Amino acid sequence: MARDAGPKSARPGAECGDEKCPFHGSVRVRGRLLVGRVASAKMANTVVVERELLKRVPKYERYARSRRRVSAHCPPCLQVKVGDLVRIGECRPLAKTVHHVVIERVRPGVD
Ligand SMILES: [Zn+2]
């Protein structure tokens, strides 16, 4: 259960038998919540979420844009596509590079 996923993340209408689903499996969300855009959905039940950050450059006293990518498990009940804005929550390690899970589709992608 995504009991720490926040009040805004409604339980999805669809069911799934995914053990790594925060709603229908045993994965619990704890730690950080992030919002980002789905950059790739080519892996099985895993998406790459990209976030744009502003990093301060002290030498020039300005901000530089940078991007950071996070792999996140995406349960089949959420039907996430490339371009969607999603909320992901930190969870236990689900694979070598995956320790976040998609808990909500914030906004569908335009493309
Ligand atoms: Zn599910």
Radius of gyration: 15 Å
Second-tier CATH architecture: Beta Barrel
Q: Strands across the major sheet, in which order?
A: 3-2-1-4-5
How big a fraction of the residues is strand? over 45%
- Report the total helices: 0
Please provide the count of β strands. 5
The dominant shape is elongated
- What is the CATH third-level topology name? OB fold (Dihydrolipoamide Acetyltransferase, E2P)
Mean pLDDT over the full residue set: 91
- Which ligands accompany this protein? zinc ion
Our measurement of the CA-to-CA distance between the termini, rounded to an integer number of angstroms, reads: 31 Å
The CATH class, by name, is: Mainly Beta
Main beta sheet: 5 strands, antiparallel
- The SSE order reads EEEEE
Number of domains: 1
Instruction: Assign a percent range to the helix content.
Output: under 10%
Which residues form runs of ≥5 with pLDDT under 50? none
> Structural class of the secondary structure composition?
mainly beta
Features:
50% strand, OB fold (Dihydrolipoamide Acetyltransferase, E2P), mainly beta, 111 residues, binds zinc ion, 5-stranded antiparallel sheet
Q: Topology, please?
A:
Layout: E1 33-43, E2 46-57, E3 62-73, E4 85-95, E5 98-107
Antiparallel strand pairs: 1-2, 1-4, 2-3, 4-5
The protein binds zinc ion (ZN).
Describe the structure.
There is one protein chain. The protein has 111 residues and is mainly β. It has one domain (1-111): OB fold (Dihydrolipoamide Acetyltransferase, E2P) (Beta Barrel), CATH 2.40.50. It has no helices and five strands. It has strands at 33-43, 46-57, 62-73, 85-95, 98-107. Strands 3-2-1-4-5 form a five-stranded antiparallel β-sheet, with no helix packed on it. It starts with 32 loop residues before the first strand and ends with a strand. The mean pLDDT is 91.
